[in-house]
Amino acid sequence: MSMKIVLGAGVAALALSATGAGARTQIREVGSTTVFPFAKAVAEQFVRSNPKFQPPVIEGTGTGAGMKLFCAGVGAQFPDIENASRRIKGSELKSCAANGVTAITEVQVGLDGVAFATSKKSQDYPLTSVDIYKAIAATPFGKPNTAKTWHDVNPKLPAVAILVYGPSSISGTRDALGELILTPGCKSNAGTAAMEATNGDKFKLICTKVREDGPYVETGDNPNLIVQKLEANPNTIGIFGYSYVEENADRLKSFTLNGVVPSFDTISTFKYAGSRPLYVYVKNQHVRAVPGLKEYLAEFTKESTWGKGGYLSRIGLIPAPDAVRQKSAAAAAALTPLDPATVK
After folding, report:
1. 291 in the same domain as 244
2. Domain count across the chain
């Protein structure tokens, strides 16, 4: 299920311009549901500060689905901006290039963390990357997963049934879960860790594929649905972007991960294992053709927006380090194209 906000009237009829992008009167933005509330806040401020421009249309499709839309081509029918809760992949850049999307600016807009939370009414206990891997991986260390309770995973944990509500395969949060938490848990086994160098595809499958036999339940890209599930099913766990847990602190509480609780400080210093950057990708070929696109990007990269004490920090965004913000702001202002050689 996607989120969508249209801050103004519908998109006007479009005609192709010399740049290949349509003469659209509204910015179109797709992608991450984690970045969605931050983009929405920026769009609202952009409208207040720039009344001559039409309000942006923003849709929370999930990072992976958004990338497919963004990379599908240049022109009025294709989005201008992709919000992402992980970095763009090399395969996605190749898809963009194949469809004529040849100049993309990458802007790291802040930090977030992959958090594990439960209802305020439920039990919480310390978890590790190894515990989570053993609980929700389809084939932990190459063997079918038969664990039913957290006690089966780790004798120090309670005999509570494993039931985790998490993001789908098109979500950037799912990708971050695999990279930041499941893979380190998987590599705790020396034999599996050695496989990374000898059989990368099998290693990735063993380390990041999640169970499909019940204990892991995909909930799409709808964090509100996860909260409802946690409240209706005691002692279950949900996987969220940290900012959403903070926003719902009256209903949710976080588990510690490897002895560290997710917080502003632990995520900004990367002490928390689930810390991750958030991104915005801009299609440079659309900037001249879509009114307000450059100004919207300028609003996103103001210190009063994304800096320490900026209005995005008040709704849960953790500012990126000073040097990262400066580099990203410069890239946004100059529309510096992303170098494909820097992307895996």
Report:
1. no
2. 2
